[in-house]
Amino acid sequence: MRFRVAVSLAALALMVIVVQSIVMFRLLDRKEEEFIDQQLSEQIEHSMALWQKSPDAAFPNTPSMWLYRIGKGEAGHGVPPFLARLPVGNHETYLGSKEYHVAVREDDNARYILAYDVEDHESRLDSLIAVNLIAAVGLALFTLLAGYLVAGRLTRQLESLASRLDASESQLLVEPGMSDELLAVASTLERYRLRQATAIERERAFAANLSHELRTPLTGIRTDAELMAGLPALPTLAQRRAQRIIASVDRITRLSSSLLLLAREGTPVVKEKVALRALLESLWQELTAEQTPAPPLVLAVPEALAVQADPALLALVLRNLLDNALRYSGTGPVHCQIADTRLVVRDSGPGFTEADLSRVFDRFYVGERGMHGLGLALVRHACESSGWQVTAANAAEGGGELTVDFGPACLLLN
Asked: Residue 230: CB partners within 8 Å, gap ≥ 6?
């Protein structure tokens, strides 16, 4: 903004100087023309009067003026044709690129022609134009520099406000000595930030309370389903339904835990070295426990590879990545491989559409592959909280792939 303000001031100053110079040049040129015409008229009248007494003294004493006299009945030899054709009066004429002012008069005996070469006048005018242009450019550059410095002083408080807005939510935006305009902006931002913080805190409290309230009835349902499934006389169909109830309760429990994690911003609580391959295998067995036969998991992850992370957040990220891949692979394999510090999870499905790629991490986004729910939104949230990067793409081998770059957190076990 500082540079735009400075450029605007410089452009305004340059425009004012140019307009002023044009007006001044036109006025000066017109005055010069009037002065030249007056000088020519006086000189030719003086020369005509002297001719009657002393012809030799009638010629002007300047190298830029020429006097011609054509007597009555004479052909006017030696007079340039472009001058001889001019009628009585004052004229401006050109010979090539040179401009001449010409005065033509007559008396009873002859015609008098006085020509004046205005080259010196044009040279002075050109020099004045050059000086004004140089001065205009210099003044515009000075205005640009001065405007940049002045705008910097004026916007310093605005930059300070922006830095405080980014630095901390607890830091006050209103400061003593602010200008009225900036004070109005800071006060409005302060009120908006307070409303936003209140709304976020209310949403977190609701999600946390909901998650806690769900745990008690879910625990009771799961216990009853386990007892029911353990009855020896229970029919096979009823046992399957009991196992399905247990799986559904576990899924709801994980969802409520995810909601609680979002409510608490999902920040890492404790970090330790977690063996990546073992965690992937454990989560895969958990996700495919009810599937017979279980889809294959193709692992290209070294046994000694670990991630320095919060175990709960890492498990949440990997579980959702595997669950997403399992959902779109059907009975096909799910591939997990390590490339440098990046874990790539690839499914056997049709891949992402272009619209899906830009929104797969949005909460409850519904694309051509169906509803994404909270899973991948949680993945992105947990990755951002842990300092990791997650991306989605279509694999060259086919299918969609999700990549988590652990960065320096990816290391080898001792």
From this structure: none
Number of C-beta neighbours around residue 390 at 10 A:
21
Residue type, 178: M
Determine the residue type at 373. Answer: G
Q: Which domain holds residue 97?
A: 2-136
Length of the chain equals 414
Instruction: Judge if the upstream peptide bond of residue 293 is cis by omega within 30 degrees of 0.
Output: yes
Question: pLDDT digit string (tens) for 199-223?
Answer: 767 766 776 676 667 777 878 888 8
| CA atoms of 404 and 51, how far apart (whole Å) | 107
Cβ-proximal residues to 357 (8 Å cutoff; 6+ apart), any chain = 392, 393, 394
Instruction: Write the pLDDT tens digit of every residue in 142-162.
Output: 888 887 777 776 677 777 777
* Contacts of residue 327, Cβ cutoff 8 Å, sequence gap at least 6: 347
Q: Are residues 358 and 293 in the same domain?
A: yes
Q: Is 68:83 a contact under the CB 8 Å cutoff? A: yes
**Consecutive H or E run containing 145:** helix 119-167
| Tokens found for residue 211 | 């998650």
Q: What is the CATH number of the domain that holds 387?
A: 3.30.565.10
Q: Are 165 and 173 spatial neighbours (Cβ–Cβ below 8 Å)?
A: yes
